[in-house]
Design goal:
The protein folds into two domains: 5-68 and 158-417, L-arginine/glycine Amidinotransferase, Chain A; 72-154, Pentein, CATH 1.10.3930. Helices cover 32% and strands 21% of the residues. The chain is built from 16 helices and 20 strands. Strands 9-10-11-14-15 form a five-stranded mixed sheet, with helices on both faces. The chain is globular and about 70 Å long.
Length: 420
C-alpha cells in the first residue's frame, strides 16, 4: 500500500504533485489575465521548459514527481463514477445553463479520458465542443447570445500550475480547499476526484481533514462562500504543529474548521494562526515565510515583523479550543520546533531590492531535504544570504513561471514528506 502524508516542511521530500504549463496558460490574454489572477501573459513554451527543469532537479534528488493532468486522466479512465461526477460539477445548470447542460454533458461524456482531463483544466471553447449553435439558438438564450466560437463553454484553470493551493497534506491527511476566488474553485473538484478515485490513492489509508463527510458526499461538500482556505497558507512544520496564514485568501473560520478536525483524531496538537495584512504581493504565508532547514527560515521582514501569532490547542471543560496569543511569531515557531533559536535569513538586498525579490518569490522556496532548497535564480541577493548561512540552493530559471506570482513552494503539492 502506498503511504501518503506530509510530516514537516523540510524533511526529505518523497512524493510530489505538480502541473506542467499547457492549454490553460495558452488561454491567457491581455484582456483576460486579470480575471484569471495573473499579472501578465506567459510565453508558454518557455514556461514549459522552465517547469521541466524544475521537475528534473527534483527527480535528480530522487523525488517521485507526479503530473496532475496525468493523474486526472488516469482517474477518469479508472472510474466511470469519477467521470460522471466531474462532468456534472463542471457542466451544471449554473455553469453552462439549463438549456445547454444536457448537450454539454453529452459532449464531455464522449471524450476520451485524456482529452477530458485536458479540457477540464485547459477549458473548452464553443468551437472545440462541436455544439450545433444553429439548432440550439431557438431554445437557448445562452446559445443565442454567442457570437464568437472562441467563447468558453468551460473556463480554463491556469492557476492549476500552483498545486499547493487546491489541496494540502497535513501530517496523515489532506484538506480539499474551498478557494477564495471563483476563477480557482473548479480546481478543487479535480484534485478531489484524484484522491477519491485514482487507484494509487484509493488503495491508501489517509484522513480527510476537510471536508469531513462520507466519501460519496466529498464532491458536494465544498462550501464556496462562507469561508476559504488555500494551501499556500498551510505549513505543517513538524512536532505536531501547523502554521496557517490568516491572509487575503484564508480566513479564521476555516482555520477553526481544520483545527477542530485535526484535534478530534490527534492529527495535530497545535495550530498557529498567523495574522497577516491582506495584499496581493503577499497573498499567502509562503510568499513571505518558508523553512530552509530544521532550524532555518527565510522571511520578508517588512511583512513578518508585523504578523501576530495565535495558538489553538484542544480545549478543556467543554471548550472547542484553548487560544493563546503569542508574544512573537519567530519565538513561537522556535518553540514548536524545539530549537533554542531560529536562523532567520531575510530577503536580500537593500529596501528596494528586498521588495523586488519578495515579488519575484525570493522567499517562496521549496525544501527537498533539510538544508537543500530550490529557488528562482533571479533572486541573487537572497540566494547569496542563504548560501552564506550554509543552505544548499538549487537554482532554476523562472522568467515565465514567475509571472504567476509563485515559486517552487507554490508549484508543489507534497504528497509524502518525512518528519524532522
Amino acid at each position: 500500500m502506498t503511504t501518503f502524508g506530509v510530516h514537516s516542511e523540510v524533511g526529505r521530500l518523497r512524493k510530489v504533485m505538480v502541473h506542467r504549463p499547457e492549454l490553460s496558460l495558452q488561454r491567457l490574454t491581455p484582456s483576460s489575465h486579470d480575471g484569471l489572477l495573473f499579472d501578465d501573459v506567459l510565453w508558454v513554451e518557455r514556461a514549459q521548459y522552465e517547469h521541466d527543469q524544475f521537475v528534473a532537479r527534483m527527480r535528480e534528488r530522487e523525488v517521485e514527481v507526479f503530473l496532475l493532468r496525468d493523474l486526472l486522466g488516469e482517474t477518469l479512465a479508472a472510474s466511470a463514477e469519477a467521470k460522471e461526477k466531474l462532468i456534472g460539477l463542471a457542466a451544471s445548470e449554473f455553469t453552462v445553463g439549463i438549456s445547454m447542460v444536457d448537450e454539454v454533458r453529452s459532449v464531455l461524456g464522449a471524450m476520451a479520458p485524456e482529452t477530458l482531463a485536458r479540457h477540464l483544466i485547459g477549458g473548452l471553447t464553443v468551437a472545440e465542443s462541436g455544439l450545433d449553435l444553429g439548432r440550439l439558438r431557438s431554445r437557448s438564450v445562452i446559445a443565442a447570445a454567442i457570437d464568437d466560437e472562441s467563447m468558453f463553454v468551460l473556463p480554463p484553470l491556469p492557476n492549476t500550475l500552483f498545486t499547493r493551493d487546491s489541496s494540502c497534506w497535513i501530517y496523515g491527511g489532506v484538506t480539499i480547499n474551498p478557494m477564495f476566488w471563483p476563477a480557482r474553485r473548479l480546481e478543487a473538484y479535480n484534485v478531489a476526484a484524484i484522491y477519491r478515485y485514482h487507484p494509487m490513492f484509493a488503495s491508501s489509508d489517509f484522513e480527510y481533514w476537510y471536508p469531513q463527510l462520507g466519501d460519496d458526499d466529498r464532491f458536494n461538500a465544498l462550501d464556496f462562500g462562507k469561508a476559504s482556505l488555500e494551501g499556500g497558507d498551510v505549513q505543517p512544520i513538524g512536532n505536531g504543529t501547523v502554521l496557517i496564514g490568516m491572509s487575503e485568501r484564508s480566513q479564521a473560520r476555516m482555520i477553526e474548521q481544520v483545527a477542530r478536525s485535526l484535534f478530534a483524531t490527534g492529527g495535530a496538537e497545535r495550530v498557529v494562526a498567523v495574522v497577516m495584512t491582506k495584499d496581493r504581493a503577499h497573498m499567502h504565508l509562503d510568499t513571505v515565510f518558508t523553512m530552509l532547514d530544521r532550524d532555518a527560515v527565510t522571511v520578508y521582514p517588512r511583512v513578518m515583523d508585523q504578523v501576530r501569532a495565535i495558538s489553538l490547542r484542544p480545549g478543556v471543560n467543554g471548550a472547542e479550543f484553548h487560544v493563546t496569543e503569542e508574544k512573537g511569531f519567530m519565538s513561537t515557531v522556535a518553540d514548536a520546533l524545539g530549537v533554542r533559536d531560529l536562523r532567520v535569513i531575510e530577503t536580500g538586498g537593500d529596501t528596494y531590492q528586498q521588495e523586488r525579490e519578495q515579488w519575484d518569490d525570493g522567499n517562496n522556496v521549496v525544501a527537498l531535504e533539510p538544508g537543500v532548497v530550490v529557488a528562482y535564480e533571479r533572486n541573487t541577493y537572497t540566494i547569496e544570504k542563504m548560501r552564506a548561512a550554509g543552505i544548499e540552493v538549487i537554482t532554476i530559471e523562472g522568467f515565465e513561471l514567475g509571472k504567476g506570482r509563485g515559486g517552487g513552494h507554490c508549484m508543489t503539492c507534497p504528497l509524502q514528506r518525512d518528519p524532522l
